[in-house]
Write a structure and sequence with these properties.
The protein is mainly alpha-helical. The chain is 66% helix and 0% strand. It has nine helices and no strands. Helix 4 packs parallel to helix 7 (154-175) and helix 7 (154-175) crosses helix 8 (184-201). It is elongated, with a radius of gyration of 23 Å. It starts with 29 loop residues before the first helix and ends with a helix.
Length: 223
């Protein structure tokens, strides 16, 4: 779903073939193709290992205090491995944010596709969504903070909030007993987005009840 656009190098032009004029010289033996598969798998595993190590470090200290050497050491690799795959420290941050965005969308879509919402009341949906959103924010606070602190990553942060808000609006529209107007989805999305952005700045024990209550009032769901 996401590509490392900020760190991906521009592809080099293909070199002229030195094979036979009929094109058969360009064909790679099946054995050679198979031989590249383990190498690609190892490269992918190394990349994921570096991202996992960086993610663990984010739970220990702020991004500004993490160096490339720290990332390499945590992954039991060399600093050269980091530079070769991501270019620099910021390249690792971009790749982690994009991976997180992809997995977050998958998680949210899976939640929104559950059969139980077809028979749930609007209040049950709002309460469940609110608890899930708060738990998500608390569990992945280092990722979200990373996105907020880097201006170029804020678009991913906004995308996560927007995606979650659209799922809530869709589920509510499908279960509301009273007809809704053409502004319903937009109003729900705006309210949910504003509340979650505020939650980023102030999180306390009352957040769950406060957010749920505000969304119910905005959508007209009985208290």
């Amino acid at each position: 779903m996401i590509t490392d656009q900020a760190t991906t190098k521009r592809p080099r032009p293909a070199r002229p073939s030195r094979g036979r004029g009929d094109g058969t010289g360009d064909r790679r033996p099946a054995e050679a193709t198979r031989a590249t598969e383990p190498k690609q798998a190892r490269a992918h595993a190394t990349r994921e290992r570096l991202l996992d190590a960086f993610a663990e470090l984010l739970y220990e200290r702020p991004y500004a205090e993490i160096s490339v050497a720290d990332m390499a050491s945590a992954a039991d690799l060399t600093t050269g491995a980091v530079y070769a795959r991501f270019g620099d420290k910021r390249g690792v941050a971009v790749a982690l944010a994009e991976r997180f965005l992809s997995t977050s969308f998958e998680r949210m879509d899976s939640w929104g596709a559950q059969d139980r919402w077809a028979s749930a009341t609007p209040r049950e949906i709002i309460d469940n969504w609110t608890r899930g959103a708060i738990n998500f924010g608390r569990m992945y606070r280092p990722y979200l903070t990373l996105m907020l602190d880097d201006r170029t990553l804020r678009e991913q942060h906004t995308a996560i909030i927007d995606h979650s808000s659209r799922i809530l609006a869709r589920l509510l529209r499908n279960t509301m007993t009273q007809p809704v107007n053409e502004h319903f989805d937009g109003d729900v999305e705006f309210a949910a987005r504003a509340i979650l952005e505020r939650f980023e700045l102030q999180d306390d024990e009352e957040s769950d009840a406060r957010i749920s209550r505000l969304i119910r009032r905005i959508t007209g769901v009985d208290e």
